[in-house]
Design goal:
- This protein is mainly alpha-helical.
- The protein contains seven helices and three strands.
- It starts with 9 loop residues before the first helix and ends with a helix.
């Protein structure tokens, strides 16, 4: 699972090939970004599999998780859900309809604003999202096994720096 420092991996081979084609180019960014991309793709598959094991699609998990993180009674209005999941209002409307049909959320009139609704996590929705999160953390822990605690902390620090640099994107 972990790449060994004494042998080339796919990224090393990719950089070697491009170095022969473009010998004047500094390809060092590929060393980081290509590895991040590969890890990102593997993480997306890992997450999808973890959510599927709990009977959820990734998008369902995103909405249910936003509700699950809200203060009890785990209720938000659609605008809050849109902000927390970063999707369009049309997509949110469709997602809420689907989740309500599955009995994972309930929608009720907002007593403070008769024009809007409140979306609440049902017990079935809470059970599914909690199972998905538990499975996700278990699978992510398996992926991180090759890293010592110090290495993980350093990786978090470095990724945070990299993430802060891209806030304007």
């Amino acid at each position: 699972m972990a790449a060994h420092a004494d042998r080339d991996d796919e990224v090393d081979l990719l950089i070697d090939a491009w170095s022969r084609r473009l010998p004047e180019a500094d390809l060092s960014p590929l060393d980081v970004m290509s590895r991040l991309r590969r890890v990102s793709l593997r993480l997306a598959r890992l997450r999808s599999d973890a959510f599927r094991a709990a009977g959820l699609a990734a998008w369902e998990f995103d909405v249910l998780a936003a509700l699950g993180r809200a203060e009890p009674v785990h209720e938000l209005n659609p605008a809050q859900l849109i902000e927390r999941t970063m999707i369009s209002s049309g997509a949110m409307t469709n997602r809420l309809g689907h989740l309500a049909e599955r009995g994972l959320i309930e929608r009720a009139p907002n007593p403070q604003d008769g024009r809007s609704v409140l979306v609440r996590l049902t017990p079935a929705g809470a059970e599914r999202v909690d199972a998905a999160m538990t499975e996700l953390v278990r699978r992510e822990e398996q992926e991180l096994q090759p890293l010592r605690r110090h290495d993980r902390d350093e990786l978090v620090r470095l990724l945070r720096l990299l993430g802060e640099g891209s806030r304007g994107l």
